[in-house]
């Protein structure tokens, strides 16, 4: 009994063996804080829960919310990513099948004739053979080959799930940016249409002054040039808006010809976003999670490759009935069976096993490099978005002041021209300055919203609520 227990314990220890290296997360330097955050963002306790829900609702725009909901159910890229995840899950299930024995059933009914010229010719060269049998084969996973294949498959399935989350985040962010750009074009269109109307009135007034001898013909040409340029701006704005509307249609899974988003003047709130600390990024970003899971899968693949250096052990068994007469097939004398372990060891393969092992190690090194690059890129994206938000906030303040000053200067220029103490070129310069200031204000507002979306995407779709300092 003692010997049996020792043998069983030894077998159990071997069965628990794994030749994969002990996994450790690849080292990478993680800063304590984001450089570009500075004192612009207030500190928040890191124990606060990150908002992982529909982050786009923070912008408080009903149209945006409705469109984002459609992305989750109708976007074709997202459906393709889901299908890839299902494929990865199925591949993991295939690997898990190695934990269980394989049983096959055979049935055969045949008539055979042996050659008369063969060695050891049977006394009955012409005979029938009826067979019903079942075969069992089970790999004894002593070196952990099956377990590491399962681990690699499960990690790749988990990585595919993280890829799905990353795709979901990216598509929602892309829709939000396209939507904000479209509303920016709506605001630009309002300015362009108002400018066309103002310039049309100015042209009519200038023509009347020219007819009365109070304005030169050059003033009429200048006024007409201004008007035509404004019409060009209005037409180009419609073009850009139409293309953005088409892009949004595809994102929500609709044909552009069947989709329309009515223009409106939108006052969209800038969502307050607190990125937290850099170390949290490793947990929040789905693409970082996917990259690390692929490192773990590659680590398990090394164990699979190493196991090839050792013998494969299996348990094989067969049981069935065989008879030369169909009437006797189901009788006890027709029974046959066999059972026993087997081992296979490759002695010479021209360096194939060594090459496969080297390939597995190189694949692991590649996955580590990809992981580190993903982390570095994530840090860059957060820093880029932080500095963009901070600088665009300052630009928004200065551009608003510039637009207000330009409007005052334009009013003065028009009054001076009406009073005959300024030339029409002074009015043209003031009008151009005021128009560019207004357009710049809209552009900065759109870029601020886009930068906030990019920050949401960069930190993985979650943030701690707070109000950025102005």
CATH superfamily of the largest domain: Outer membrane efflux proteins (OEP)
Major sheet description: 4 strands, antiparallel
Total count of helical runs of at least 4 residues: 9
CATH class of the largest domain: Mainly Alpha
Question: Number of DSSP strands?
Answer: 4
Strand content: 5-15%
* Outline: elongated
Order of secondary-structure elements: HHHEEHHHHEEHH
Distance, first to last CA: 80 Å
Q: Could you say what the CATH architecture of the largest domain is?
A: Up-down Bundle
What does this structure look like?
This protein has 470 residues and is of the alpha+beta class. The chain has two domains: 2-100 and 144-310 and 351-458, Outer membrane efflux proteins (OEP), CATH 1.20.1600; 102-140 and 311-344, Outer membrane efflux proteins (OEP) (Single Sheet). The protein has nine helices and four strands, in the order αααββααααββαα. The protein has helices at 2-15, 62-74, 76-96, 145-211, 217-251, 278-284, 286-307, 352-418, 424-458; strands spanning 102-113, 126-140, 312-323, 335-344. The chain is elongated, with a radius of gyration of 37 Å.
Quick rundown:
With 470 residues, the protein is of the alpha+beta class.
Topology:
Elements: H1 2-15, H2 62-74, H3 76-96, E1 102-113, E2 126-140, H4 145-211, H5 217-251, H6 278-284, H7 286-307, E3 312-323, E4 335-344, H8 352-418, H9 424-458
Helix pairs in contact: 2-4, 3-4, 4-5, 4-7, 4-9, 7-8, 8-9
């Amino acid at each position: 009994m003692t010997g049996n227990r020792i043998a069983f314990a030894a077998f159990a220890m071997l069965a628990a063996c794994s030749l994969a290296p002990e996994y450790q997360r690849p080292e990478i330097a993680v800063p304590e804080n984001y450089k570009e955050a500075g004192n612009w963002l207030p500190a928040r306790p890191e124990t606060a829960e990150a908002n992982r829900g529909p982050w786009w609702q923070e912008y408080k725009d009903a149209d945006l919310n409705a469109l984002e909901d459609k992305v989750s159910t109708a976007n074709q890229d997202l459906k393709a990513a889901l299908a890839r995840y299902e494929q990865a899950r199925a591949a993991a299930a295939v690997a898990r099948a190695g934990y269980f024995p394989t049983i096959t059933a055979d049935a055969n009914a045949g008539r055979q004739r042996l050659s008369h010229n063969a060695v050891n010719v049977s006394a009955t060269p012409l005979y029938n053979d009826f067979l019903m049998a079942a075969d069992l084969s089970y790999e004894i996973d002593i070196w952990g080959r099956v377990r590491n294949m399962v681990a690699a498959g499960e990690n790749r399935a988990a990585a595919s799930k993280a890829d799905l989350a990353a795709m979901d985040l990216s598509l929602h962010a892309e829709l939000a940016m396209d939507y904000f750009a479209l509303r920016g074009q709506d605001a630009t269109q309002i300015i362009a249409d108002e400018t066309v109307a103002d310039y049309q009135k100015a042209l009519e007034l200038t023509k009347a002054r020219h007819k009365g001898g109070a304005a030169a013909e050059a003033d009429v040409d200048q006024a007409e040039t201004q008007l035509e340029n404004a019409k060009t701006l209005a037409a180009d704005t419609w073009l850009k808006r139409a293309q953005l509307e088409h892009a949004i249609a595809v994102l929500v899974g609709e044909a552009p010809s069947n989709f329309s988003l009515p223009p409106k003047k939108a006052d969209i709130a800038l969502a307050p976003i607190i990125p937290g600390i850099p170390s949290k990024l490793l947990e929040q970003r789905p693409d970082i999670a996917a990259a690390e899971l692929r490192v773990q899968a590659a680590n398990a693949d090394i164990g699979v490759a190493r196991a090839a250096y050792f013998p494969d052990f299996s348990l094989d068994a067969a049981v069935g009935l065989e008879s030369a007469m169909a009437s006797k097939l189901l009788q006890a004398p027709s029974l046959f069976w066999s059972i026993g372990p087997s081992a296979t060891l490759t002695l010479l393969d021209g360096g194939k096993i060594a090459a496969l092992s080297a390939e597995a190690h190189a694949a692991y090194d590649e996955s580590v490099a990809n992981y580190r690059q993903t982390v570095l890129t994530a840090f860059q994206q957060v820093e880029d978005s932080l500095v963009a938000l901070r600088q665009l906030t300052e630009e928004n303040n200065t551009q608003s002041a510039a637009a207000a000053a330009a409007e005052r200067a334009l009013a003065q220029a028009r009054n001076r021209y009406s009073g005959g103490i300024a030339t029409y070129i002074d009015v043209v310069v003031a009008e151009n300055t005021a128009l560019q200031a207004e357009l710049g204000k809209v552009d900065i507002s759109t870029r601020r919203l886009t930068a906030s979306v990019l920050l949401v995407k960069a930190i993985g779709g979650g943030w701690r609520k707070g109000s950025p300092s102005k």
